[in-house]
Design a protein that fits this description.
The chain is mostly helical. The chain is about 80% helix and about 0% strand. The protein is built from 13 helices and no strands. Helix 6 packs across helix 8 and helix 9 packs antiparallel against helix 10. The relative contact order is 0.12.
């Protein structure tokens, strides 16, 4: 049977120009209407009454408290998720054990549970009438309607993000380098710091950036456990909701613009990391071919 030429293969999958134009038009229209237009409207509404009103809304005491709380929660949740994500991904990809599939399922659990339901679960466990609520109250420990509850809710919705970025990457890399390090006498910590982490640094940074963005912007679970105490348990999204319900639209959009800027920064860093990952992926086969030619 005659093999098809390269031109014939390309021609078989070539679409008419009008089809390409239509697909491009639909894609750009969707992007502009559902993504770009809302983003522009946020900044337009935030600056509608001028820079003075914008800055006043951001530096207002309750707004600063909300910003500080969001940063505090992110600074606690992201490092914990980083440690858990590396440990879970390392265990799943580098070792074989009986309950591996159960661990993978538990990691994916927050993706299938509504954040509001997760918040209600914490209320049922740690609330005043919850399973542990009375014992905690006797020791003057407050979880729900306080910062610890917000941290727990944020941890629940964000802990799969780092692990889920690392698991496919580490599976693709295989176990050969870690096994070689072990044969050469390296212990577990040396293998982790000298071999594993350098190979996954860009994927790890990618997961941390996504985790931070989700922690700063989480609304559903945090809304349930926070109690909406103004100046105490309101994060940036909750403060935006309160301002909007009070018809203080300029201040609400000013606070919302902070989250929009965070999203743009996340997108820029994400694009930069993906570029580096693509360069590393393309360079590895070339280096392997060069080594093989040298051996020959």
């Amino acid at each position: 049977m005659k093999r098809a030429s390269r031109f014939e293969k390309n021609a078989a999958t070539r679409e008419p120009r009008w089809v390409k134009g239509l697909l491009l038009f639909l894609s750009l229209s969707f992007f502009g209407f559902f993504l770009l237009l809302p983003l522009i409207s946020v900044f337009a509404q935030a600056l509608h009454k001028g820079w003075e009103v914008y800055l006043k809304a951001i530096f207002e005491p309750d707004a600063l408290t909300a910003i500080k709380l969001s940063l505090t929660v992110a600074l606690i949740a992201v490092p914990l998720n980083l440690v858990f994500g590396v440990a879970a991904a390392w265990a799943i990809t580098k070792f074989d054990f009986k309950w591996k599939q159960l661990l993978i399922t538990l990691i994916d659990l927050p993706f299938s549970v509504s954040p509001v339901i997760a918040g209600l679960v914490y209320v049922l466990v740690f609330g005043a009438q919850g399973w542990l609520g009375r014992g905690l109250a006797e020791h003057n420990i407050k979880i729900i309607f306080a910062v610890p509850g917000i941290v727990l809710a944020t941890l629940f919705v964000t802990f799969p993000l780092v692990a889920r970025e690392l698991i496919p990457l580490m599976e693709a890399q295989g176990r050969e380098e870690e096994e070689a390090a072990t044969v050469l006498g390296a212990n577990g910590w040396q293998t982790l710091w000298k071999v594993t982490l350098p190979n996954i640094k860009w994927g790890l940074l990618y997961g941390v950036i996504l985790c931070n963005a989700r922690a700063m912007g989480e609304f559903g679970a945090v809304s349930v456990v926070s109690g909406h105490i103004r100046g105490y348990t309101n994060t940036i999204p909750l403060h935006v909701e309160i301002l909007y319900n009070e018809y203080n639209f300029a201040a609400a959009f000013a606070m919302a613009s902070i989250l929009a800027l965070l999203a743009l920064l996340t997108l820029a860093i994400k694009t930069y990391i993906e570029w580096h990952l693509r360069l590393e992926t393309e360079s590895k086969p070339l280096s392997m071919e060069a080594n093989n030619e040298t051996d020959l």
